[in-house]
Hints:
Blueprint: E1 12-14, E2 21-23, E3 27-31, H1 35-40, E4 50-54, E5 59-61, E6 67-70, E7 79-81, E8 83-89, H2 98-101, E9 105-112, E10 115-116, H3 117-125, H4 131-134, E11 140-142, E12 146-147, H5 148-151, E13 158-163, E14 166-172, H6 180-187, E15 198-200, E16 208-209, E17 215-220, E18 224-230
Parallel strand pairs: 3-15, 5-11, 6-18
Antiparallel strand pairs: 1-2, 3-4, 7-10, 7-16, 8-9, 8-15, 9-12, 13-14, 13-17, 17-18
Organism: Methylorubrum zatmanii
Protein name: Fumarylacetoacetate hydrolase family protein
GO molecular function: hydrolase activity
Amino acid sequence: xxxxxxxxxxxxxxxxxxxxLFPVRRVYCVGRNYRAHAREMGADERDPxxxxxxxxxxxxxVPEGGTADHPYPPxxxxxxxxxxxxxxxxxxxxxxxxxxxxxxxxxxxxxLDMTRRDLQDEAKRQARPWxxxxxxxxxxxxxxxxxxxxxxxxxxGAITLAVDGEERQRGDLSEMIWSVPExxxxxxxxxxxxxxxxxxxxxxxxxxxxxxxQTMTARIEGVGAIGLRVV
Length: 231
């Protein structure tokens, strides 16, 4: 039996130091998971975490240490950067205990949750879904995965983003309100998680707009760095 249209390509991520690939299933994102960012967005930092999804084909794979062209999306005049640690699951399950959740993570990467903020803000005002603000084409740039077996499970370390060499975001992974194991455990109470799922784990304060012609550099200590030229 043949497909009636060409089969869409399977989304995969490169693995640092290997020719192997990591196939992606779903992309989950956690909102307002750093205290300072929660405050700058007008939220109570004590609120429980919430999740939203991006389609897997919003991922834009960026070479380690390289700079890739990143298209400015249509229908926005306020396109924001949000640098994030991404956790990639190698094991799935339901109702995963926090104590064992880290063992479900295969590795980590540097990612950005790019956001059409004007569309997101309008959706908030009208109590509508965030999809148009959060799910633009290629709005989830990501670097190669580094296996946890190599780098461990980073709980501390600087997470930064610069625009044209000027630092705009700086935080530390230790400032997460909800740790990666806690995010995995909570998410598994809503969905059955599977190998290949990604979790964008939240961003520190300092999010802001980027314009065509500018270059973003995102870094996470011990995980890597990626560059994006907005075109």
